[in-house]
Write the structure tokens for this entry.
Amino acid sequence: MNSYRVVSDLSRPDPEVLRRDFARYPAGIGNYFQLPDDIDGRIVELTAEVTEGATNRYDAARMIEGYLQTEFGYTLEMKAGGEDPLADFLFNVREGHCEYFATAMAVMLRTQGIATRVVNGFQRGEYNETADVFVVRQRDAHSWVEVYFPGEDVWVAFDPTPAAGQTGEAASGGFTESMRKYFEALEMLWIQYFVAFDSQEQRSLFASARKNISEANQAANSWLTSAYSALQEWWRNFRGDAGWAGTFYAVGVGIGLLLAIAVIVYLSIFLFRRVRRSQFWSRISKKIKRGKQVDVVEFYARMQRILAEKGIVRPQHQTPLEFAFAVGNSDVRTITEAYNKARYGPADLSEDETAAIEDAIARLASDDDLRPANN
């Protein structure tokens, strides 16, 4: 496994500077102004209403961002549909996931002649203080918008998705949450010190481990010797060598030890059950049962390959959702719904859902009547 280092520019221009950016756009960025030929006129009218009073690109973007964040709801369900899913989202359903919001903002800004692009990526994830890392999961996948300001020659991010769809750090606290982070840290250590280690680093680690094991062995021998001496002393007290006082003391110590063992056994069973239900155990089980449930992204890639063989290729400007409606096939929509659910939702696909996707892919592969819409 190769490692690499990147340098990121996290600076962000001052809003007042962006408000004064009235520079003309350079040549070669026409793609960021493109709109459908048959765009719904209501979208143009809505944008003009929302941005009324805006005198610059920055304020127009903030107005549209705020409008979508506050006037619409977040859901992972694909409720919008019809011939124009975007118009259905804006004027009827008014609920959707981040792709709806990002697409809506990009189109609305482009109606105002503002260069815009949709970005797909991941949010920063959850900070695990035990491992001192940010953990980015599949559910942290997200879509947002970037607006180009030519005077500053910079793309500035805007996120129109309501707060419910912008995943942040999970609330820390609680025994279960702490245990989950500890197991997550153990997984990170395994990756760091075994999976990502080269042979030299592994030899150094094993040499250190041998030294630690030797020291631990010496400590264990010393502890066992002390424990054996204490056990002998307890037995002498128990059988009365030191009189009745010694016997009572030995009985009390014995009862205390039995209670301590009972508590330890109970806590061990409790922890074992918690671990079995934890996400860490789920991930380990999936690795052990490799191939039992294939990742939904792989399903979607297979679907795209099958469609490409039939002459149906998703244009770069179309989101998976828009593409599914454009194809107009129920199996394509089934696979796309599962794709969005797994990418943007917190849970993995169930075995029944996985089987349904396999069936849908098989039907697509054998459907000889499936052809491009313009044929």
Notes: The chain has three domains: 15-165, 206-287, 292-366. The chain has a mean pLDDT of 80. The chain has 13 helices and seven strands. The beta strands are 73-74, 95-96, 116-122, 126-128, 133-135, 141-149, 154-158.
